[in-house]
Amino acid sequence: MRSGPLARHVVPLLAAIVFVLPLWFMVAGSLRPVGLPPPRGVELLPPAPNLDSYARLPQLIPLFVYLRNSALVVALAVPLTVLVASWAGFGIRLLPPPRRRAAVVASLVVMMVPVTAVWATRFEVFRLAGALDSLVPLVAPALAATTPFYVLIYAWSFGGVSDGQLGAARLEGASTWRLWRAVALPQVKPATLAVAVLAFTFHWANFIDALLYLRRQELYTLPLGMRFLQLLNPTDWPLLMAGAVVVTLPSVAVFLLAQRLFLDDPLRGLRGNAA
Amino acid sequence: MTATTRSAVRFLAPYAVGTLLLVAVPALLTVGYAFTDHTGLSTPRFNGLANLRRLAGDPFFRASLRASMVHVAMAVPLRLLAASGLGLLLAAPRRGGRWYRAAVYLPTVIPDIALALLFLWVLNPLYGPLNQLLGAVGLPQPTWLATTWGARVGVVLMLLFPIGEAFLVVLATRRQVNARLYEAAALDGCSPFGQLRRITLPLLAPVLVLLAVRDLVLTLQVNFVPAYILTDGGPGNATLYLPLYIYDQAFEFLGFGYAATITVVLLAVTVAFIGLQLALVRRWRVLR
Amino acid sequence: MTDADTVTDADTPSARVALEGLGKRYGDVVALDDLTLTVEPGELVVLVGPSGSGKSTALRILAGLEEATSGRVLVAGRDVTRVAPHRRDVAMVFQDYALYPHLTARDNLAFGPRVRREPAAAVTARVERVAVQLGLDGLLDRYPDQLSGGQQQRVALARAMVREPAVFLMDEPLSNLDAQLRLAARAEIVELHRRLGTTTVYVTHDQAEAMTMGDRVAVLADGRLQQVGPPQAVYDAPANRFVAGFIGSPPMNLVAGGGALGGEPGTVVGVRPEDLHPDPTGAVALTVTVVEALGSETVLAGHSGDGSRLTVRTGPRSPCRPGDVVRLAVDSARRHRFDAATGRRLP
Ligand SMILES: Nc1ncnc2c1ncn2[C@@H]1O[C@H](COP(=O)(O)OP(=O)(O)O)[C@@H](O)[C@H]1O
Ligand SMILES: [Mg+2]
């Protein structure tokens, strides 16, 4: 069965270009010299591009403080998310099938709870815990695996580990803990990679929690810092785009590690050896 | 409970406790606060249905509800169409396939704040690339964020890019369909369009329903950042989406109680949609 | 396809199929190498070979699901090499049945005719008729996952029959059934073929299936046709060492010439297990290592004085025990000789 080159490559290529375009405009915009008049036509690359705007960033805002805070948050939240999600996913795998389904449905329901329903009241939970005015509220979602979606990714991936394997390991005297660490987890490395990458992009970009729970400048993470930058210089486009590129770059770099998600068969790709 | 189930529960415990503390308890508290005058600072006092009565007469709430519904009506179908269209288009293995897929996913990893700042610029009538593109092909160049519909469409436009999750789910589900089904259909003279209509869509229907409802719930919430950064609810409350109004009430006007009431309305809408979803999915099981 | 076409198709229930010099490569892998095979109208030919020998590839090229790298496909004298699958007037039964999971058995059967916009009343009647023929009449409103493996297999078969094609193509349709069911289904397909008289190409890796079902069998290995002929002829005179070893169970004993089974150096001598007889005066001394009593017969396995491994088929209730030495006589009329270098049969 063949399909023409149109369906095979031309249309996909056009789609790809449309979806890469925003990032392109972001980068191009950041390279535009300050004070230039509006472009007359479509400007794929500005005249005389330069990096001045990037140089101005740390002069206007405490960029490196923001960076350090953001780095701290992901350094804590990403491993914690992976741990909690993989435990929960393995727990679901160990449940007998009817309860397994119930756990999956429950996770789906939690995914449907609007975030607005917990904004103000989480604030109170954090206040009670004395965690306001620290980075704790930004790391805390990791305790709940950040989102049930990551738990479901693991649950699906561990589904590829057969009962036979688990039984065999148990006959060797392995504890369930050991089943998780030595039998199951090594077989779903692609899922771990995917969850880590997704968790990174979530926590790195987490704007709302920062906006809600951080008050002091010294605690600002990069996304909130960018909002601050926007308030300072609302129309300095090259500067704002330079800031946007700085926030975006780490996410894109980490995302490129997650190529497996985009293989021909992503679900099988996630299961790795267990497929 | 068997030993295996007991250890399963142990593995699930951190997730369960985390979800309880960070989702369940706050969500229940919100429902409770909806019937109080809580400001976030004082001790909350029960005030019955006062908040609901206030809601009924609140023009901002009506504007907010309308803005949210208009937004959902535009954004959900378009996002779903884009995600499933691209997911089906790019599911077939082809040389370089993973790069096309990665490109489509790319905007999804751009942090909200960066995407919003970018669209603030993209939609700028004077400097923005969008109007330059429109001008280049001879189309009118609206002033976007300055007009009611320009702002609403602008936000939808921005949210048409981060559709990676639904895109991947559709793609992965499509890959699960047995290729032999398509061969059997081809032997019967079923055209590619017929295969889409008679095989792909019916088989993907449950997932598409799930995605539609999930996107609906998500879309009711993710428009906070664009509205906050791009329009701040304006012009004239055209984009005062529910999350933005809730945020304003809770954190700007210290109306935890009232914000909770609005949230409960949002929650009720959400629950209605979840119920609808479960009912549909169950129905689909029977109907195939 | 118009109704007129359909009517003509139904009037010519079987067609000659010719594969001419078919070749297929996947990158460096040669899946099929110069396959030429003619299937006469109404004939049931079994394509048999080990897994990976190119059987499915051949069948899929014949169906038009795969494009040949070289060669031609003719159905009823018409060159269909470049013709779309549905215009070849063939129906296929897949190994995993490929039933549409979202449709009932009835809608699965009616799928093709509906796509071709055949009149609804005629479709309903045909579906009912075929369902009765295959004993599916009570199951038509079930979904595939509510049917047992055997029932699913029948629905798949019925779906192909509803098509009333000129040629049936079946790719290992029974390999997902358990042994008992497989035997019954095997007989059923043969009976069906006898009744319908439709040209059928049947693919299997199971040589017993090939022997019992085919009017002729075509043995494939490494993408190459090894031998074609009636099952007994292939069994009695395998064209080469591969066929000798592949057809027949337990497989033929093959021993280098000059060894236990005689013959001259440079040849390989083959004797089927049933052509070795216990005989006190026999030339071969077999040290028995395994005794398999199958009830109706006993299979002895062991090695001769020079270490060649041999299998012998004897009557039931054999007194032999592992460790015994049995003398065997070779039925010399049934001794096969093959060229050691090329593997080809020597006269
Ligand atoms: N789509 C494909 N891509 C690459 N190689 C293939 C493909 N399909 C089949 N092959 C190869 O062609 C050879 C024949 O395959 P096949 O016809 O499926 O064998 P059989 O059906 O006899 O088991 C095998 O070596 C197989 O690996
Ligand atoms: Mg095969």
Can you describe this structure?
The complex is a heterotrimer of chains A (275), B (288) and C (347). Chain A is built from 14 helices and no strands. Chain A has helices spanning 5-30, 52-60, 63-94, 97-112, 116-128, 136-139, 148-158, 163-171, 176-184, 189-205, 208-213, 222-232, 237-255, 266-271. In chain A, α1 packs across α13 and α10 packs antiparallel against α13 (237-255). Chain A has one domain: MetI-like (MetI-like fold, Orthogonal Bundle), CATH 1.10.3720. The two termini of chain A are 27 Å apart. Helices cover 68% and strands 0% of the residues of chain A. Chain A has 275 residues and is mainly α. With 288 residues, chain B is an all-alpha fold. Chain B folds into two domains: 21-57 and 254-288, no CATH class; 69-240, MetI-like fold (Orthogonal Bundle). Chain B has helices spanning 3-33, 50-56, 59-89, 97-109, 112-122, 129-136, 148-159, 164-176, 179-187, 192-222, 224-231, 242-252, 256-287. The radius of gyration of chain B is 23 Å and the shape is globular. With 347 residues, chain C is of the alpha+beta class. Chain C folds into two domains: 3-236, P-loop containing nucleotide triphosphate hydrolases (Rossmann fold, 3-Layer(aba) Sandwich); 251-339, Nucleic acid-binding proteins (OB fold (Dihydrolipoamide Acetyltransferase, E2P)). Chain C has helices spanning 3-11, 55-63, 105-115, 120-133, 149-162, 179-196, 207-213, 231-236, 241-246; strands spanning 17-26, 29-39, 44-48, 70-75, 78-79, 90-93, 167-171, 199-204, 216-221, 224-229, 253-256, 267-271, 276-278, 284-293, 298-304, 309-314, 325-330, 336-339, 345-346. The model of chain C is unreliable at 1-11 (pLDDT under 50). The structure holds adenosine-5'-diphosphate (ADP) and magnesium ion. Residues 26, 29, 31, 49, 51-57 of chain C line the site of adenosine-5'-diphosphate.
